[in-house]
Amino acid sequence: MKTLSPRPSVRTLPAYHPPLAGRNGLRFDFNENTAGCSPRVIERLRQLVPEDLARYPERGAVEANVAEFLGVTAPEVLLTNGVDEAIHLLCQTYLQPGDEAVIVVPTYSMYRIYMMAAGAQVIAVAVGEDFRLSAKNLCESITSKTRLIAIANPNNPTGTVAPQAELLQIARSTPEAAVLVDEAYFEFYGHTMLTQRNDLPNLFVARTFSKAYGLAGLRAGILVGDPGQMLSVRLACSPYNVNAVALACLPTALADHAFIQEYVCEVRDSRAKLEIALTANGVQFWPSQANFVLMRVGATAGDSAAFVERMRRRGILIRDRSSDPGCLGCVRITLGPREHANRLLAALQETFDELGIAPRQNLGASRP
Questions:
Q1: Strand 100-105 vs strand 121-126: parallel, antiparallel, or unpaired?
Q2: Which of 255, 283, 305 is the C-terminal boundary of a domain?
């Protein structure tokens, strides 16, 4: 007897199981804002009334607000259910079975999953020395079947960035492929490809409110692209994809410039303190332009797992990245305000001492 069966491309998808259960402690594991969103957003939430939740959400006015904030036109902007939906929509719009999609590894896991779900063959291009993107290597992987290229800039989990010239080279080399530059960590880096959008109709830029803005629970992202191309992307998108609570809060979040500037400044300061401390202790890490740092704490997956567990016992949650290509024995640590960084440095020193990873250099002595 025949039975219902998923498509082959879905049956072969790798499972993505983020360790979300029991996240008690400082949240340095998922690159979220560790302090929370703007107080003005909380006040806006309190102002919601039952009717706000009883009707279908309308994103048009908020998209216009976001477009003005970004310095682009409204037809170029689509609000999405986090950047995940933006990735998914590009895959649904441009990929079909038999196509090829290119990623650089290590990188964000969901690129591969959404590409595979669309039936595409994923071409993984390994990064070069120090986890740097090689535009030359990537361009050599492009074929007549390439229809989508996804690049996180800054990259996750490495925090490294690709020069704008190399990203332009990639986009220009393959005009028949959509090129996504995922700028989820833009606020901590400060450089964008949005200024190049008018010259490259195949270029798409994604942003999120989950990181600097502290709105990961509201699931709101942005996709920007050529107006003509965005018409096609919108066809694949639900008209009610972003919830009413997120739409109510986004204008308020965008308007609180001081909150974002202060938080980003503190994260950058915390990042610098951590990198200085790791250098002093001889611990290998990769300089980051995001709100996290990737560091190597051992030679095996067991070493990184043990490190994560010791930090958890001290109330600090960090992410084991040992399963990522080139990241054996590595952990990724999110940065937050200075107060959080001080607690992190003290816990790191204790864990280093306990596991015998690095000579004692008093990490906990770093203070504002």
A1: parallel
A2: 255
Residue 3 included in any domain: no
Among 73, 148, 170, which residue's Cα sits nearest to residue 103?
A: 148
pLDDT tens profile 121-177: 999 999 988 899 999 999 999 999 999 999 999 999 999 999 999 999 999 999 999
Say how far apart CA 163 and CA 271 lie, in whole Å: 21
Across the chain, the runs of DSSP E, i.e. the strands, are 26-27, 77-80, 100-105, 121-126, 146-152, 178-182, 203-208, 221-225, 285-286, 292-296, 316-317, 319-320, 330-334
Would 94 be classed as within a structural domain?
yes
Task: Name the domain count of the chain.
Answer: 2
pLDDT tens digits for range 31-78: 999 999 999 999 999 999 999 999 999 999 999 999 999 999 999 999
Domain membership of residue 132 (yes or no) is yes
Intra-chain end-to-end CA distance of the chain, in Å: 70
Nearest to 71 by CA among 222, 221, 264, 201: 222
List helix spans (H) across 76-174: 82-94, 109-117, 135-140, 164-173
| CB-CB neighbours of 27 under 10 Å | 19
CA 331/CA 347 separation, integer angstroms: 14
Q: What angle do CA 281, 284, 289 make, to 5 degrees?
A: 110
Distance, C-alpha 163 to centroid of its chain: 18
212 and 85 together in one domain? yes
pTM: 0.93
Residues 159 and 269 in one domain: no
Closest C-alpha among 134, 138, 124 to residue 160: 134
* Segments in 281-314 forming alpha helices (H): 301-313
